[in-house]
């Protein structure tokens, strides 16, 4: 990748930070985002803003293995089974 190609990929804008530490991200940059949540990553003096894609509930199916002996009506039993599954 040449320097000219890299310069074309980078787009910047100067924004003022308000007293609460907020900035606004241009709508053109947010247009393709599927969520209003972002992950902030600090690397030295640089802060990256990374949009978080929503996780469909179907991705969670079968993600936790819990035995048949658990009483799902008892939250303490369910929590105990969950904690045991995390140790494995």
Folded structure, characterized:
There is one protein chain. The protein has three helices and two strands. With 88 residues, the chain is an alpha+beta fold. Among the domains are: 30 residues, no CATH class; 31 residues, no CATH class. Strands 1-2 form a two-stranded antiparallel sheet. The model has no long low-confidence stretch (mean pLDDT 83).
Name the features.
88 residues, alpha+beta, two-stranded antiparallel ribbon, 3 helices, 27% helix, elongated
Topology, pairings included?
Blueprint (H helix, E strand, L loop, with lengths): L2 H7 L17 H4 L7 E6 L2 E6 L23 H13 L1
Antiparallel strand pairs: 1-2
Q: How would you briefly describe this protein structure?
A:
This protein has three helices and two strands; from the N terminus they run ααββα.
List SSEs in N-to-C order.
Answer: HHEEH
Please compute the radius of gyration using only Cα atoms.
22 Å
| Strand order in the sheet with the most strands | 1-2
Shape: elongated
List how many beta strands DSSP finds. Answer: 2
Q: Could you estimate the helical fraction of the residues in percent?
A: 25-40%
Uncertain runs with pLDDT below 50, 5 residues or more?
none
> Biggest β-sheet: count, sense, barrel?
2 strands, antiparallel
Annotation field: number of helices: 3
Task: Bin the strand percentage.
Answer: 5-15%
The chain-level structural class is alpha+beta
Question: Mean of residue pLDDT?
Answer: 83
Distance between the termini: 46 Å
